[in-house]
Amino acid sequence: MFRLSALSTRQAVQRLAVQARHQSTISTAAASSMTAKNVSMAATGVATVGAIAYMSMETVDANMAADGLHPPVYPWDHKKNLATFDHAAIRRGYQVYKEVCAACHSLDRIAWRNLIGVSHTEAEVKAMAEEFEYTDGPNDVGDMFQRPGKPSDYMPKPYANEEQARAGNAGAYPPDLSLMIKARHGGADYVFSLLTGYQDPPAGVEIREGLNFNPYFPGGAIGMARVLYDGLVEYEDGTPATTSQMAKDVTIFLSWAAEPEMDERKKMGMKALTMLALLTGLSVYLKRHKWAGLKTRKILYNPPAPKKH
Ligand code: HEC
């Protein structure tokens, strides 16, 4: 709405400029009366546009915190057209998820096997899955039983149900993170900013007991406390585990979780574009080849020779 009125203000100003330019070409006598008329018209125009702009400014949300602070745009490597995910970062990000986030957040759509060939080897994934007990069954006598996890099992949940999750988090529900990057405006930029954006509330802002101030969260008060602190995890590849490094890695891990097919999709896209480019060249050549005979032909009319009598 505001943009619309800003546009019309710009148009009005342009129109005035055009009128002023026309003025210089009109003879003086006519010009003086024209000028008076034009000035009054212009003044009315400006007043109207101003009034509309003022009115529409009134409609701008007075409470900007309701939308949260807009996250800056970060240069994620995997967002480039020809780039894949940073798989070392996915591996580190999984470690952050497992050691930190998994205490509260589930990752329902990712099975252990999805990590094979992406961030871990098959043997590693089997060993990781076996650390967890899964309920299976029923067995021959109809009983459910516990067994160690297999690569085909999905990631274990921290809570049995939503009620338990809320009870453990002062009423706030830690959402499933599988599609979080796609579910929030700003995606990876938002999650990274959220994790690194905790700070003291500015003067005059009251935060209720149990909530935490984070300007990127719509409303500014989030149920999740700051979870990442420098040196919280120890990366096996020796990367220093700063807060921003862990936030970046876990965000890349979650970006992969939301879009595990991305690398494959970009590769298929490259193949398709290459094939289509070759086929376009071929079809242009064939079209010209087929039409060459028709396009270059010449139609001649030879009138019959006059009859001799
Ligand atoms: C102690 C439990 C706990 C831990 C650990 C935790 N979270 Fe949360 N998280 C929550 C709760 C509770 C909410 C819901 C907050 C709310 O709605 O106010 C939440 C919300 C979120 C949201 C959603 C915000 C939104 O826009 O709705 C994201 C994203 C998130 N957490 C990411 C993470 C990541 C990544 C980690 C690991 C680095 C993590 N969380 C660790 C409890 C936790």
From TrEMBL:
If you read the UniProt record, what top EC class would you report for this enzyme, in one word?
translocase
- GO cellular component annotations of the record: mitochondrial inner membrane
Q: Could you confirm whether the keyword Iron appears in this record?
A: yes
Reactions catalysed: a quinol + 2 Fe(III)-[cytochrome c](out) = a quinone + 2 Fe(II)-[cytochrome c](out) + 2 H(+)(out)
Domain Cytochrome c, chain residue ranges per copy: 88-240
Which molecular function GO terms apply here? heme binding; metal ion binding; quinol-cytochrome-c reductase activity
Q: Name one GO biological process term.
A: mitochondrial electron transport, ubiquinol to cytochrome c
Q: Where does the protein end up?
A: Mitochondrion inner membrane
Q: Which keywords appear in this protein's UniProt record, sorted alphabetically? A: Electron transport, Heme, Iron, Membrane, Metal-binding, Mitochondrion, Mitochondrion inner membrane, Respiratory chain, Transmembrane, Transmembrane helix, Transport
What Pfam families does its record include?
A: Cytochrom_C1 (PF02167)
Query: Cofactor: bound how, per the entry note?
Result: Binds 1 heme c group covalently per subunit.
Supply the EC number(s).
7.1.1.8
Q: Which residues bind heme c?
A: 101, 104-105, 224
Question: From what superkingdom does this record's organism come?
Answer: Eukaryota
Look up the record and name the cofactor or cofactors this protein needs.
heme c
Provide the family line. Belongs to the cytochrome c family.
The identity of this protein, by name, is: quinol--cytochrome-c reductase
Q: Which organism is it from?
A: Linnemannia schmuckeri
